[in-house]
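ENTRY TYPE: protein
WANTED: fold as tokens:
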Amino acid sequence: MTQASHVLAAAFADDPFISYFWPDPARRRKALPGFWASRIASRERHGLVDVARDPSGDIAAVALWEPEGVTSAPIARPYSLIRALGTALPRALSASHRVDATRPSADHLYLAVIGTRPDVRGQGYARQLLEPRLAEADLAFLVATDFANVPFYERLGFRRDADLAIPGGPVLYPMRRTA
């Protein structure tokens, strides 16, 4: 899944939430492949990992999910995640707890992250990953980390919950979709 971690690193290189963890762009670009590799490994063991491929067979988009009944996927490689986060660890833990507190109490499918390679954005790869999973879910939840993505999720039937302001950081947009 090395290619998948690089897809997510490119997709989130300038994301407001990720930039809160690593404000320095050079440090962020260096840290992201390892960070995403750890997150992917966790979802491979305790969740769902979906990829969409472009016509050449390269990964175009990646989605990481937690299925219904899973409230927080265990970290598969905690040391690699801690190493990737470095000094961002306290901010990441605090923000993660705040995000987790916004999740519905009822069983739900949680879209932990979805990212598309910048060179193929707008070509339907994210939708290709989302629609089959959403068709099976009674309740789905996500947290948009960039307001620019909110309209895309709304077109898929998601509705915004109360915005989540991270102290000293960005505003996040929890969203849910019912069948």
The first strand starts at residue 48 and ends at 53. DSSP finds seven helices and seven strands in the chain. The helical segments are 2-11, 16-21, 25-46, 78-85, 89-101, 125-136, 150-155. The chain has a mean pLDDT of 91.
